[in-house]
Amino acid sequence: MLTRVKSAVANFMGGIMAGGSNGDHFGGSDLPLKFPYMRPEFLGLSQDEIECSADHIARPILILKETKRLPWATGYAEVINAGKSTLNEDQACCEVMVVKKKPGGSSTPSKTPTAKRRSSLPNGEGLGLRENSDSEGLQFHYWALFDGHAGSGAAVVASKLLQHHIVEQLQDVLDILRNSALLPPTCLGEEPNNTPGSHRALTRAASLRGAAGAPGSPGTPPTRFFTEKKVQHESLVIGAIENAFKEMDSQIEREKAVHSISGGCTALVVVFLLGKLYVGNAGDSRAIIIRNGEIIPMSTEFTPESERQRLQFLGFMQPHLLGNEFTHLEFPRRVQRKEVGKRMLYRDFTMTGWAYKTIEDDDLKFPLIYGEGKKARVMATIGVTRGLGDHDLKVHDSNIYIKPFLSCCPEVRVYHLTQYEHGHDDVLVLGTDGLWDVLSNEEVAEAVTTFLANCDPDDQHRYTMAAQDLVMRARGVLRDRGWRISNDRLGSGDDISVYIIPLFYGNQQP
């Protein structure tokens, strides 16, 4: 264990310890790739251009060649890392999707004609493009960023397929979402009853007895004994996104048996549907809205520190997952044998503060969560706690799987876009952690606002240029002491991918 700990500490800044710098054929797998490595399709790059973009010294910033490739004049820019991995492990996807209903009640997903390229269903089969949208279909806009680790495989697969899992989940509630006048029925197949006060309210005593009504009432028992929760339509969309993430994660696990799908990835997804933006995040990418100079956070980073209590609780409830080598308790530093019997500060999953406990032999085990900030790791291995993939990830030189501690479930936040009038400079900014590691929300908002203020409001290239400027600010300039940004701070050496989505166009949607 001591050797393992030394290796883990030495690799804090290197990210995932399992696999090599690439990891796309980790373990020497001879299995075929699920999808070949590439850059986002909407960039329209040739193979030669993709190879030139992988220059870890020059680090060229890639931008859209044609703004019409993305809806809403969305801006996009990306840059590869400074040698952290052979390939750019970020991936991106942006499409306009339509949920269509099949004859007989089933539905099938399709893209609108704006997406002139091959699609892949969750089963990997090609899907022909339709030229005419179904009048009964439901259209939504989709943007996504995936930040891979220990290889680009999971990020590539998720960028191809996650949107189709969302479509499949929305198919189940298509008719309900299109009928906004009625609340979703509690049980499908029964008539919805949305009349206020249609059911007699029961007293607490009567409810506990499952009684007919108020105490002593001779009345006939009502058909329902308890009041029902009123579930709103947006909760169905949230549930569809959450289930789509779980299905995507399960598909990666299944297909690893027949395809080489390396590593794992974080996922940041935006869905614009029926006037609302749904932002789903699993990982440490980030989304913010900039509206009239105000910053509205639209995601939370999921890291070993932010999810400490969830991870510790799991370790406490299922100690076998710790492999008899880790402790779920947290200490300010590693406990030494000479401190057994002494009292030291600690935290358990029930605590946000700290207290003292008498050190025991079990406390000498390596902490489940160790390190601070970007150096914090789960089991000395991985620095993110939510995402897709990582099913084979183990603690270095052990047989302890880390996946049980990693959740694929996103947090979904909702922004009622059509309730506000947005100007041309009001935007949603999405970025992988390579951006946010070196720039704060305030710095990003100031940079974007200042740049857009100096552009012609009618110039649709302005958002791509703003994304390029943002990536350049985070990457910095290569000097004698590495990549440097403003005030001679260290620039980002990670992959950086950025969307700038103007909200003004959302107000123009029917």
UniProtKB/TrEMBL annotation:
Pfam families: PP2C. SUPFAM superfamilies: PP2C-like (SSF81606). GO terms for molecular function: [pyruvate dehydrogenase (acetyl-transferring)]-phosphatase activity. Gene3D superfamilies: PPM-type phosphatase domain (3.60.40.10). Residues 73-503 form the PPM-type phosphatase domain. Residues 104-113 have a biased composition (Low complexity). SMART domains: PP2Cc (SM00332). InterPro entries: PP2C, PPM-type-like_dom_sf, PPM-type_phosphatase-like_dom. One of its GO terms (cellular component) is mitochondrion. Residues 102-130 are annotated as: Disordered. This is PPM-type phosphatase domain-containing protein. It comes from Megalops atlanticus. The lineage of its organism: Eukaryota, Metazoa, Chordata, Craniata, Vertebrata.
